[in-house]
Design a protein that fits this description.
This protein is an all-alpha fold. Helices cover 50% and strands 0% of the residues. The radius of gyration is 15 Å and the shape is globular.
């Protein structure tokens, strides 16, 4: 009997960061209308660059999950 290990998908960092942000929103950790940490703060928390966070935030905004304001 051969037990096959599941194939791991390699995703871009922005997808991992977007999934982390989405998880916090959907779990209720960040409520609707609540201000989330800045791109720099999120990048520091997750250990990625601000540009990776920016790309993740843009993808979530395109899906309507968050609203980006300056």
């Amino acid at each position: 009997m051969t037990d096959l290990l599941p194939t791991l998908q390699r995703k871009p960092l922005r997808q991992h960061v977007a999934a982390l942000i989405e998880e916090r929103i959907l779990s209720g950790q960040w409520r609707p209308g609540e201000r989330i940490p800045t791109e720099a703060e999120l990048g520091e928390q997750v250990g990625v660059s601000r540009s990776v966070v920016r790309d993740a935030v843009r993808s979530l905004a395109a899906r309507g999950l968050i609203e980006v304001r300056q």
